[in-house]
Amino acid sequence: MPEPQYSYADAGVSVNEGNRAVDLIKDKVRSTFGPEVLGDLGGFAGLFQLPNLHSYKQPVLVASTDGVGTKLKIAFETGILHSIGQDLVAMCVNDIVLQGALPLFFLDYFACAKVVPETVSEVIGGIAKACIEAGCALIGGETAELPGFYAEGEFDLAGFVVGIVDREAIIDGSSIAPGDVIVGIPSSGLHSNGFALVRHLITKSGLRLNEPAPWSKELSLGESLLTPTRIYARVVHDLIKQLPAHTVKGMVHITGGGFLDNIPRVLPSQTHARIKPGNWPVPPVFTWLQNSGEISPTEMFRTFNNGIALAMVFSPEGAVIAREELQKMGEASYVIGEIVSGTPGVSFDQATTRL
Length: 355
What we know:
Radius of gyration: 22 Å
Largest sheet: 6 strands, mixed
Oligomer: single chain
Low-confidence stretches: none
Strand content: 15-25%
Number of helices: 11
């Protein structure tokens, strides 16, 4: 009696579906290519020729990696997948532009229980579109089919970005001093942080994702929660080009850890950030979360961006010039605080029980 013949497909991995997924994303990925990208899809590695190195005195590569977190659970439950790719790119790119780096190329990792080519295409299409917005090329990635590892219909995402900056132009916060001004650039909402708490509060409230959002008459709860993370690359670089060198002293991406954990990361010793709540409009999603969960202001500022996801530090004179340029760009900005003497940390200018 012949022994049974097993295949990789019998174990839950379909090479054919993986190949079909690649066929569906080829044009989307190629749309991100510039002349610096060498080769095509299908190679063992992506090739990228560093551009115009003669214009850099000491070129420095800047890299970051990140994921989307449990915001993915909202995407799975609603079936809204097109915006998740932007979240991934933004979470990586926003971190490197803080140093003044120009994003060059991006890679993604898509891991799932079973490859559904249409799902892969939708997600990677969102990544490609976001890479174009960020000004970087999507030069490669990995789609991993891991049966038995992820729940059916679910997947995980991770991304990796590399950028470049001249060493003398690196923005690292070292020149920040007492008297400097903190200018905030608005977020688009929750971005991709705090969703474990958000999901807990939604369950507690009994709301369904297909119902209208309590803070929006135009969007369902799921649609509103999946508002994609803003990509700040073009805003930052367009601003830097218009300002004298070293006008921007430091920048902060307010992600996991909120204001309390992220702002101190750029503060030199003997400097302290004093934030002024009430100096910027807080999107209603944050007010709803605070009220629904009876969350303390301290916890809100440790968990969420509360409407400001990019903070920039200037001298008082530099802040005036920068805000004028931002206004010309059609970008809102707010003076959200100041730098004072003290140990690195964050405090608030006024006692408050609400945002």
